[in-house]
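Pasting as-is:
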Amino acid sequence: MPLSIIRNDITRVSADAIVNTANPHVGVGEGTDLAIYEAAGMEALLDERAKIGDMEPGQAAVTPAFDLDAKYIIHTVGPAWRGGDHGEKETVAHCYRNCLREAVRLECESIAFPLISTGTYGFPKNAALDIAVREFTDFLDDHEMDISLVVYDKESFALSSELFSDIRSYICDADAKRRVFDEALPFLAPESSVPIDEDVMRSAPRSAMPPVRKKASGGFRFLRRKGDREEKAEKAERTEAPKHYEEADPDTGYSVGMALPESMESEKSIVPDETTGALYSKRSIDESLEKLLNTKEETFQQMLFRMIDSKGMTDPEVYKKANIDRKLFSKIRSNVNYNPTKKTAIAFAIALGLNLDETTDLLRRAGLSLSPSNHFDIIVKYCIEHGFTNIHEVNCILFEFDQMLLGA
């Protein structure tokens, strides 16, 4: 996954380069800076840092990583927050930009960032997150590199309060609608056929419920009430049916002594329908199945690449926007029957800017769907309905709500 958000101690992350929010002067600061010095080796790292000298906000410089699981430490100085009117946002953007430029120069394949300036320097976390996502998105449009945004704890990461509240309300509304639907199931029209909660079923008044049959797979199946005439017809059919099967020849399915229809004399296998007793030849079944197979709809892969062409997008543009590794994308392109994971399929839908109906159709080709009772699916639906097309912004939302991220 080109960009991932992980909850971890950055000193324990494995990457070619680890970014340190450094003290502007030669010396050890607090927070991330102190943790990196202690993990890398205090004296050795201080000696290298002394060779760099004082640093300006936004600047980036490189030292060896020593005892960290990395090749390099890229030091950058973030700004202290002074209300936002002193160029703080532009300076933080330069921090990310200059660190990535150094990583390219060093030919790094992976880099891990903290959320710069959000610790002791007091930069608002939601604003810092917006800047980081924008800079990472712009960089990945033109470069191939695995970027990790490392968040130490829940308090170190935050969406805007307005967005968080809106999504939380959307989830609560979806949960409430589902609960109302579940509680109403026992009182639905008799012809309904859906799984329901057994506790709800037990608590509902019997007079209000249609007859039900418990299914082996769990839940209940509502049965349509039958009239007297229907019941009599079914009783007569059950009475007559055994005669047919008791006298049926085991090889042909026809009653003993009954002449085989001329049109089926050459058939080797006759299959009786269990409900009606009607007979079908193996050849007719094979032909019907073959016809269905020959008229099947597009696969996920076929629909995906048709949509890419219709949007006028290039392959690199799509897999980068979808946060998909280039090797996986090549694998999908070469396999017409490729079945993706749910997070990969949705990532393509977001990257292509599909609406909810189009997304539903694309997922269906892979045997997938969006569930109204799954928070991951509800959040994805929210993002699609509200026009989110930046996969990294969507992943920030999913991360905030402790859900898996999109891409592969």
